Amino acid sequence: MSQLKINGKTYSFTEGATILSLAREHSIHIPTMCYLKKLGALTSCFVCVVEVEGKANLIPACSAPAEAGMIITTDSARVKDARRTALELLLSDHTGDCLAPCHLGCPALINIPKFIQELRNKDNRAAITTIKENVALPAVLGRICPEICERVCRRRRKDAPVAICHLKRYAADVDLFSDTPYTPKIEKSSGKKVAIAGGGTAGVTAAYYLLRMGHQPVIFEKSDKLGGGLRSGVSRDRLSGEVLDRELNNIIKLGVKVEFNKALGKDFGIKELLDKFEAVFLATGLDAADNAMLKKEGLSSSETGIIIDRHTNETNIKGVFAGEKTTLAVRASAHGHFSALVIDKYLKGLPLNPVKRPFSVRMAHFSDEEFEIMIRDISNEGRVLTGIVDTKTVKNNPGEGRVPFTSDDTLKEAGRCMRCDCRKAASCLLKAYSIEYGSKVETYKGEKRGFKKESGAAGLVFEAGKCIMCGICVKICEKNKEIKGFSFVGRGFVTRVELPFDGRIDMISLKTAEECASLCPTGAISTSTKDRAQKEK
Amino acid sequence: MPAKEREDIELELIEKIIKIKGKEKSSLIPVLQEVQKLYRYLPAEALLKICELTGLSQAEVTGVATFYTQFRHKPVGKHVISVCHGTACHVKGAEHITDTLRRYLGLEAESDTDSEKVFTVEKAACFGCCTLAPVVRIDDITYGKVTSRFVPEMLSLFMQTKLKKETRKEIEPVKETDKGKVIIKIGLGSCCVAGGSLEVKNAFDDYIKKNGFAAATKRVGCVGMCHSTPFVEVVAPDKEPVFYVGVNKSDVKLICDKHLKALKPVKKLTNTIKRGLDLLSFDYYDGTLEVKESAMKEGPACAFLGPQRRIALENYGEINPLDLEEFKAKGGFTALTKIIKERDGKYVIEEIKKAGLRGRGGAGFPSGIKWEAVRLAETATGKKYIICNGDEGDPGAFMDRMLLESYPYRIIEGMVLAAFAMGINEGYFYIREEYPMALKNIKFALGECEKAGLLGENILGSEYSLKLHIFQGAGAFICGEETALIASIEGRRGMPNFRPPYPATKGLFGSPTNINNVETYAAVPWIITHGAKEYAKIGAEKSKGTKVFALAGKIERGGLIEVPMGITIREVVEGIGGGVKKDRKFKAVQIGGPSGGCVPESLADMPVDFESINETGAIMGSGGLVVLDDSDCMVDFARFFLEFTQDQSCGKCTFCRIGTKRMLELLEKLCKGEGTAEDLVKLEKLAEEVKAGSLCGLGKTAPNPVLTALKYFKEEYIAHTLKKCPAKKCKALIKYSVNDKCIGCTLCAQVCPSDAILQKPYEKHEVLQEKCIKCDSCKSICPSEAIDVTT
Questions:
Q1: Model ipTM?
Q2: Which helix (H) or strand (E) holds A3?
């Protein structure tokens, strides 16, 4: 038994151990994308680098044998910088979308492709569950949302965008009018109370999520009804009172407390709230006229509203949060949801660093040829939407004036979705480590691989643009003695993993292909069913 | 990888090739090389047939076939024009030559072959003919000192040669049985041949035969005075030898008449070399035969040869490289005989250790220590291997080529000594395919040695046996890295592995393996013959002995030189090399090629040894020295090297594969004047990270050209962010214009390939900026210095 030091602590090891194996044995985190125990070190991704005293260069932990007396550092600034750069370099040559354009385009960040897929699977419960991860009032939004997501829907380039908003409304309506509407799982009570000033979209949404996270929200509403702008600013032709009341009531029933006829600055002040509540969220939709009142309450404000830290939604008073001013319900919903996430962190004493924009590689531009590949396997169904206005996207969602989808319409329309999102978005190691190390997608720009997509049997998909050249699939094919397996092709920057001689993924045995898909660290090789078992322990 | 495109492939021939070369993976590269000889590229059908016949997977075959530059995947024209883009050629305008060729042949932007499919234009890695830069090779004929203007003539000359079916005489070894005759020695290294020495030799042979003179020509190896090829030495019995430099065919008669007819000395022999083509121009040996004759005794040649110390290059210009008997007569194989008969392996290793010999491949690892490790290494396979690394891929380096061509026996002797010392019975010469003469000469020499009992079974009657093979590289710079080289011999893509394990414990086919550079082995016989003590007396404190350098670039006298370690850069550049051209300023010297860096003139008094060079941020490398003057742009130069390394990266590790590309893109941005101060910061940070985070030596050293340039020439980088190129090299940042010295001769307008010169005879001309492609043709032809370049 020999000894070495990792991060200042001494460890013993036996012959044959590598730095990585030893670190794993002692639960010291070293990231790696190309190393799998059963295949041996491939030494390609270089995110596992560590510092070894006396060595000028960084050392890949996966391959370096543990040597007696080594003094190893796995988490120094230099190591983290190098890992961040390695990931940024890989990101700069990574073509695809982690999250679909519609998902990123939605102010409320609804995972649109996911709920559409669930509708396709005729699983309305799953769809509404997905939707309610991000919006509290989907039936309302399904009628009045300006459909920003549809403007960036990629299908637009072929014929017309998927009727996302109307699909959402379908899912919400089915749920809302069912005997057993969806109720979210509510976390164990934290015993903490949050005051919310304003019962409009933002306030109700914040209350909904705070409640889900185990806190007790209390809404202070200046009028005698919840809804705010949804009542005053939207005509009943677009949004019926029945839908609005029903959806709001469902939230109140979950346990949100409301005090009606209580206005900020008149019936209560911030100071009093802070005496009784652990945090305060201001969602009053106040405008310029209220500037003086806000100042009186001790808040920094300007004509455009309360001044907040745009990253954390904090006001100048500790424990008091506010959203940005908006007249769009979907944005108000987003502010409410985001503020709830921040307040939750605040209540738990965690650093306030929630991510406003989720991490995603984005394929901003693509050629006609690339688009042809994207639409190769999709349905040719035209946009199903019908109604009293035109069938294309409209600036103002006509709401109730639009003929609701039947379940058949829903299946057809949902079938038009191109699934632009990455199938491995949940398990991709490149994404996970990029988030962990704060790697930015745009740091290095330059020539990059193009979009390619090839589908095979059993839902197998090979997207060469997402390959990080780890070599795992090449090694698996070699191990399984595949004659027509994955191969390295070329040299230099343009080296690629390909199936030789214009080969297709179907030429590999299904077993091997599925093994490759399940072990591919990114979305380059995937199946519709399986996913890489997260980080091999 | 293209799908099937030809139906007419005769696949039976492939079967034959595989029968001869073998089915195993380690035969794959030789098989592909033979198959390419058949079709001049590798059709997909042929590759599939290889898979079928060998049982190798498509991934194995495709992986290898697409890794090496030698292998082509689409049909080529009848003749392949390879423009060398090595360092020396780059600084002497290879880019212009490629542009001119493409324009002249009317190639489409995406195509490299003309519409008639006669010529294919390729960029080539270095041919190692750096002193003749820029160099173009058409099929097997090499043209040196090519200018844009010479391009049309070069192509017609080439076609004439082909039409005449004038097959050049094979370079055969000449047995010297001509005692008493006048011997005319002619250097026939690759450079010399490119410089026309084979024609000169043929002319001598013809003329001697026609007149029945008592004389014979004799080929000799490289003298190293590449700047003045062809080089001829006339040795008459009992007379001082007479040297001629820059000889051409038309000088042959005069030289023969002078020496062989006992006529009075020739009066004046005009050097006709400059006849229009500039093909064989010499910068300073213009003039009379007398001038040429005295060249060796005084003046430049003395300065060139004086400070040199020849160990690896011993007997330069004297012996026929292929004549084993002559080599032995000069003391060759005495070291081996002594060791095999009187000593043992341990003794050799001790001597090498005492001599302080360090590997000449670049890193300078002490050879004796490595040999001892291999000697003591346990082998599970029962085998150990020795490899001579002749994969000299650095653009701008040609030491190994010259050594292999001119001193094959010395290298073999060194290798046998090393193998004997380590108890190794099998080995390989790994020589790059761009060096046909080196391959040929080593092959011949190995055969001779086997016949003479110096190789093979029971060497010199002892128990000891050694089999040496030749492995022809297929074009990949990375294969100079030892683990990649091993992968290549094993028939795999040349992708390096993490070390340890080092080859000394687990190398070729899993066995302990010793790899040294050509020059390292070449020094061994001398050390054994003269003793470690003598060797250790030469050189610097920690860097013993001599070092061979390929001196090229913006210098008066380029060539192959061997100097004692510790000599200063200035002594080499200004003394031996004669400095840069008169009106230019010595700016820097690039040491170590793409892995090295630029050492500025201000550090030129630094001694040349491993440690001192490392301190500058450059590396010794294998010994390429390219001299730069004030017309060389350091941003462009770094860009040039990164363009090379990102293409040569094996593609395995992230930092090297993508990092070098991103560095290149930042440099390209700077060269276009689009770079910002933030880009400089980003470039430097990325360079440091690529250096620290790459798997092998290629990636670890690839940032050196950038880092040294940023260290010593930062102001030039800053200038580029302000859209200025002080060296006036970066096309996007310069402007051509006509000044008042213009005499209205219209020459510039005649040569301008893009009609960018507005001219009226006898009036001042004008450059039309929107049409100007900045090819420099006008400036280079203007007789009155009337073209200005401004930035």
A1: 0.90
A2: strand A2-6
